[in-house]
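Working notes for the structural subgroup meeting. M.R. asked for a predicted model of this chain before we commit to crystallization trials. I am recording the input and output together here so anyone reviewing the notebook later can reproduce the run.

Input as submitted:
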Amino acid sequence: MRLKRVHHIDFAVRDLDRAIEKYRRFFQVPLETREHLDNRGVELARFRLGGTWIVLVQPTRPDSPIQQFIDRYGEGFYHIAYEVDNLNDLVIELQAQGAKLGKDGPRRGLEDWKLVDIDRDEMFGIMTQLVEPS
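Returned structure, recorded in token form:
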């Protein structure tokens, strides 16, 4: 099987402090990390739920992809990421099948994760990522 598990799920939020407080109060899940990523124009908070990361993401500038998403769709589910063993091989296979992948190709994410986006048109309107953890 190519997909091993759900690696992380991101949710776009306008107010990260409020979202963290609600997650803690409603679900009593401890906050694992809070990070500011200047290069992506976001601040995020991560919660671990079993083997899956739940990530709340707030835009920090107007040109952030998260801000553009919120402007278009509002707050809520942003994307799902599946863990894979060998991202490079899978990318080659997907491209050979004609799949549309994100423009920025395989790149490095948090904790040096290697990841690639699959165009939302390919996945029924759902932004999907494939992740190979470091």
